[in-house]
Amino acid sequence: MSHSPLIASLSRHKLTVCLLVMQVALTCAIVCNVASIIGHRLAQMQLPSGVVENELALIESISVDESANHLAKHDADMAALRAIPGVTMVAAVDALPFNGNNWSNGISLVPNGPSPATATAFNGTQNEAQVLGMRLVAGRWFLPEEYLPLDAAHDWAGINHVPSTIITRTLATKLFPSQDPLGKVIYPGDGPVRIVGVIDQLLRPSLGESDASGYATLFPMLPDTADITYVMRTAPQDRERVLKQAQQVLASLDNNRVLRHPQTFTQMREDYFRRDRTMITLLLSAALGLLLVTAAGIAGLASFWVQQRRRSIGIRRAVGATRRDILRYFQTENGVIVGAGVVLGVVLAYALNMLLMQHYALQRLPWPYVPVGVVSLCLLGQLAVLGPALRASSVPPVVATRG
């Protein structure tokens, strides 16, 4: 089929064609980035936390008495919680995946050097790893003598004195690619800390948009603050009962405290991603609405052009054009318009992504989303024009003789 009539027809409607091309381009750019954001959030929601989620019950205790010996109170609290029927182990921790208590620091490989990674520091009692069910893939757990003494500095001051650390596999790969991290020295503070173990996975308390969600370090420091989280490991079916009894036990030991967020780890994870699920629903609705508007614009313009060209279509039919020729003409015309739109849309998609990366720290647009978006819009354009094109192909040759 000669494309000369097609080009001539489009050139007579420059403004209309340009507006439709821009609509398709903007739709392509927005839909590609929305799909990328949704895909990234869904992937984050499926990330394994690195702990035995269905066996953990949590409760946060905040002591009002700042002058109290918090380490001694933690020991007494944990002893009482272990006595609850069904509780197998108890640990006191300062942070957990998804709880938002993110104490992070830059990790250097030389004193006062650049930080190739920023990792969360997790502190807990000596059985923290066993209670949470972390999986050691290399090295060993902390030795009892490696924990800082009770009268030593903790928190930010203590990080300069800890002798050893256990890091996640993800952080080990970032710091020492293609190397064995065991025995290597890192600088999370001013002093050197030797890596003695590597765990499979442990997510940070707050997940970012980058790939650093698994950058975590464990330090042999006992949490000694007034705000502490007790983690109880029990059978999945006993978690709700254990939580109720834990509140009663802790309140009876010391009523000069505030108990907050009694929940299972599963509930905490659900709460953490509640906003993400809402955001995904809104973005998906907006993207589908934009696609429907674009499809309606393509179909509406095609219907208008069919109505305008009925006599010329009848003439073409009278001189020998088949219904298939007419159908192919309108599909090709639509393909040219949508094709120009998606080419421009690819450029706009990456420009929009760079803007989002700069202002909202979003990830780079993965390239597979672009061809998927291009193909989807081209198919949408062909489906939208199919109805008007079929009506055009059904115009009889006799229309050519009518005034």
TrEMBL record:
This is ABC transporter permease. It is a multi-pass membrane protein. Residues 67-246 form the MacB-like periplasmic core domain. PANTHER family: ABC TRANSPORTER PERMEASE YTRF, MEMBRANE COMPONENT OF TRANSPORTER-RELATED. Residues 286-395 form the ABC3 transporter permease C-terminal domain. GO terms for molecular function: transmembrane transporter activity. Belongs to the ABC-4 integral membrane protein family. Keywords: Cell membrane, Membrane, Transmembrane, Transmembrane helix. It is found in: Cell membrane. GO terms for cellular component: plasma membrane. The chain crosses the membrane at residues 20-39, 282-306, 336-357, 369-390.
